[in-house]
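User: I'm new to structure prediction. If I give you an amino acid sequence, what do you actually give back? Let's try with this one:
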Amino acid sequence: MSNPLPARLLVVTDRHQAALQDIMGEAIAAGARWIWLRDRDLPAGERRALAERLSALARAGGARLTVGGDVELAAEIGADGVHLAAGAPVAAARARLGRGALIGVSAHTAAEVAAAAAAGADYATLSPIFASASKPGYGPALGAAAIAHAAPHGLPILALGGVTPERADECLRAGAAGIAVMGEVMRAGRGGVRNVVRRYAVALAAGVA
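Assistant: Good question. You get back a string of structure tokens that encode the predicted 3D arrangement of the chain. For your 209 residues, that looks like this:
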């Protein structure tokens, strides 16, 4: 691990639930400072175009952009980092993107968090912590106890999956460094995103305090 997290809230994209540019613009205006471009099912050209638009939006708003799974795309657009699947080569991503890049890993067990830490990742998402409306049936839900079980490995953990503002404190108390959120922001709709992001900001600040 070489880089501190840019924020305690990581907003994860899903164009199936939202018009991404509008939603991300509102989220950044409300204070979101870290975006994960997921949307892995897009054709390569369309995903690159979307990545470039979101990169420009993030830079204009002082936010950081992480690209999911595609190290080359992250390098080509000058993204701030990449988010890899469990077991993907962290060292190769670091070599391609440089020491300053944020390298994250998706984990679903404490063992995968430990492996990500040993590989030199900067953080891991751990999921699903709670049942998620974005991925019904994905699980089983691990519960906040899974965070406490994985935290001793020393890698910053972002709780992912069904983490509402009301549940943020439970995750932080279990040892999470922050939370990653998709559905609560994506489904908020134009005009509602600012309120949702601010609710998360308040919950995370209270948890830190």
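You can read the tokens as a compact description of the fold. Here is one thing that stands out. Strands lie at 9-12, 34-37, 64-68, 81-84, 102-107, 123-126, 157-160, 178-181.
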